[in-house]
Amino acid sequence: MGLLSKKDSKLILDPLADNNPITIQVLGICSALAITAQLKPSIVMAISVVFVLSVGNVVISLMRNIIPSKIRIIVQLIVVATLVIIVDQVLKAFAYSLSKELSVFIGLIITNCIIMGRFEAFALANKPWQSFLDGIGNAAGYGLILIIVGFFRELLGSGTLFGFKVLGDSVEKTGLYAIGYENNGFMVLPPMALIVVGLIIWVQRSRNKELIED
Amino acid sequence: MAIDTEKNSYTIIFAIVMVLVVGSILAGLASGLKPLVDANKRFEKQQNILYAMGINANEGTSDVAFISTDKVEEEFTNTITKQYVIEGTKATENSEAYLIDIKKEETKAKDPNYTRKLPLFEGVKDGNPIYVIPIRGKGLWDAIWGFVAVDKSMTIQGVFFDHAGETPGLGAEIKQRYFMDDFAGEHLLNDAGVFKGINVAKGNADPKNERKSDNAVDAIAGATITGDGVTAMIMKDLKMYVPYFKTLN
């Protein structure tokens, strides 16, 4: 790693696995349940959060010495809200059908606890470059789980990926459906996302015993 | 840092400056992107109107597919030959009728002296004139709206519904083809020529929707209130056009 020092690359890589915001810190669960019924919105949500969190972290970090501590939470909220409105407006102007599909979820980024959490815990006390890396890392760790959950939920729940019928046509009974396979309707519902996240946590902790708390 | 960030005066000044900066950034962005957003909204409306008329990119039993945004403007001007604004039984041609905001008209119409302006789009399909009427109503959580294409005798040729925030999987299904396709061929008037609307009914004796003159389509299970909303908006908004359609025949 010539570009990043060892400490810096840890900022990016840690949240991807051993300090993942969803599976270890259990933050940002609400949106992980809501939008992962399909793969496409999961990916768009992941990209949007990467943008909002990395830029937001840098903005907060640049302002860290001048933010009055009494109103710092409000200042953080304003920064997130501004960035989210920018994402929303840009999507409305350049990707209208996508913005209709995501509708309320883009607005919900504001309430994503990961964002406020990183602002408060990291950006307020660190330099812009480190904050940027931390933002990328945490948002990517969040996005990674979103995409894994979205992949399984769309595949098992609707038999499609990105809307393509990869398992055959459930109405016409082709492909896997011809031999009696059925979609699991339960996968499309939010509770199943929680169970999938639970399974990921299980797999992760059984591979790395150090993560298990007493 | 020499500034004392704990002082009250500093906190207040910081808050004011921050609000001003953020406010002007967002205002600038919103007005800069407005033309693009407005164009997208206009295309969407044109796509919806054309969809109700049966001009769309549906293939077989696929999901709802509109004609693409780069072709919609041209297709719209070619297909919709006339646009009217109806006041009472009097129709005046107005090429900007599709910009009429039904929601605002609805509010204005609460004044009994106000004659409501009703937009109507006329096009030609298979040699016969076809009319598209915009409708708007309430679902379970939020607004629902749509476009209904009818012929001269008020027989439905096609519909398009949309919603602001109905429950996914239940009320939100009104914009799925299996629900919208059922409306095609239904009669809005009964045999005696009286306006009956379309009843979105459960316990329908005709779930395959073979009887087209029964003024009813099969409801979506679990979406009773949204379905009732569809019934109500068809009843309320299409009724206002009946006097005009009587003059056509």
From TrEMBL, chain A:
Pfam families noted in UniProt: Rnf-Nqr
InterPro entries: NqrD (IPR011292), NqrDE/RnfAE (IPR003667)
Enzyme class of the recorded protein, top EC level: translocase
Enzyme Commission number(s) of this protein: 7.2.1.1
Keywords from the named record: Cell inner membrane, Cell membrane, Ion transport, Membrane, NAD, Sodium, Sodium transport, Translocase, Transmembrane, Transmembrane helix, Transport, Ubiquinone
Topological category with respect to the lipid bilayer: Multi-pass membrane protein
GO molecular function, one term: oxidoreductase activity, acting on NAD(P)H, quinone or similar compound as acceptor
Transmembrane regions listed in the UniProt entry: 43-62, 74-96, 102-119, 131-152, 185-203
Location(s) in or outside the cell: Cell membrane; Endomembrane system
One GO term describing the cellular component: plasma membrane
GO biological process: sodium ion transport
Highest taxon of source: Bacteria
Principal localisation: membrane
Catalytic function, reaction form: a ubiquinone + n Na(+)(in) + NADH + H(+) = a ubiquinol + n Na(+)(out) + NAD(+)
Family label: Belongs to the NqrDE/RnfAE family.
Complex and partners: Composed of six subunits; NqrA, NqrB, NqrC, NqrD, NqrE and NqrF.
Function field: NQR complex catalyzes the reduction of ubiquinone-1 to ubiquinol by two successive reactions, coupled with the transport of Na(+) ions from the cytoplasm to the periplasm. NqrA to NqrE are probably involved in the second step, the conversion of ubisemiquinone to ubiquinol.
Name under which the protein is recorded: Na(+)-translocating NADH-quinone reductase subunit D
Automatic annotation (TrEMBL), chain B:
Catalytically driven reaction(s): a ubiquinone + n Na(+)(in) + NADH + H(+) = a ubiquinol + n Na(+)(out) + NAD(+)
FMN-binding domain ranges (all copies): 139-241
EC numbers: 7.2.1.1
Enzyme class: translocase
Residues where FMN phosphoryl threonine is found: 224
Places the protein is found: Cell membrane
Transmembrane spans: 12-33
Assigned keywords, A-Z: Cell inner membrane, Cell membrane, Flavoprotein, FMN, Ion transport, Membrane, NAD, Phosphoprotein, Sodium, Sodium transport, Translocase, Transmembrane, Transmembrane helix, Transport, Ubiquinone
GO biological process: one example: sodium ion transport
Topology in membrane: Single-pass membrane protein
Main localization (coarse): membrane
Molecular-function GO term, any one: FMN binding
A GO cellular-component term linked to this record: plasma membrane
Cofactor: FMN
Self-association state and partner proteins as the record states: Composed of six subunits; NqrA, NqrB, NqrC, NqrD, NqrE and NqrF.
Role according to the record: NQR complex catalyzes the reduction of ubiquinone-1 to ubiquinol by two successive reactions, coupled with the transport of Na(+) ions from the cytoplasm to the periplasm. NqrA to NqrE are probably involved in the second step, the conversion of ubisemiquinone to ubiquinol.
Family indicated by similarity: Belongs to the NqrC family.
The protein's name: Na(+)-translocating NADH-quinone reductase subunit C
Organism: Winogradskyella pacifica
